[in-house]
Amino acid sequence: MPEFAAATVRLRTPEDAVALPVRASVDLRAWAAETARGLVGRDDDEPKLLDALAAELREAAADSRERGPITALSYVPEPRLGELARIELSALVADDMYPEVTVDLLRSYLAAPTADSYRPPEAELRTLPAGPAVRVRHAYVRDVGRDGLGTVLETCAYGIRADETWGLVLLTSWQALAHTDPLCELTDELARTVRVTS
Known about the structure:
single chain, two-stranded antiparallel ribbon
């Protein structure tokens, strides 16, 4: 297995997903406006829709850039409704504290309950073309107000052991709870498309 380099990792981009410019140096405002126009279509001249979608795409790209993933996608099957889910593929490289990447380490990392956990994480072992893996579903409560109410953020993640020195994390996150099953299925499909090449 090759040493980790972003160029050695591939993930199929699903239909209705937009690659976020997380590694390229681009003007996010101009990129988001052009991408929103492409998603909505040239014939649709609703400025409010275009502005809202462009703002959401710009925020999505800026947010993902903060985490520095290998790749990040905004899943937008219905442009009028905005981003349905975010998909990120990131690398975890062994270091002095964790000199070997194992599936158990990935499970511990992804399935650790937090103070924001809405329910306990569910983890199960899987085998993928890119290597042994763990699949974790988790839900968090974010942006809790003074009334104690917040927004539930669901995730479906795969920790994939590429080799003993590095692993990958494929993470899909969303707030539209009615879409949980289809988005978990999409994540399962994408996990099977992750490839590591030399």
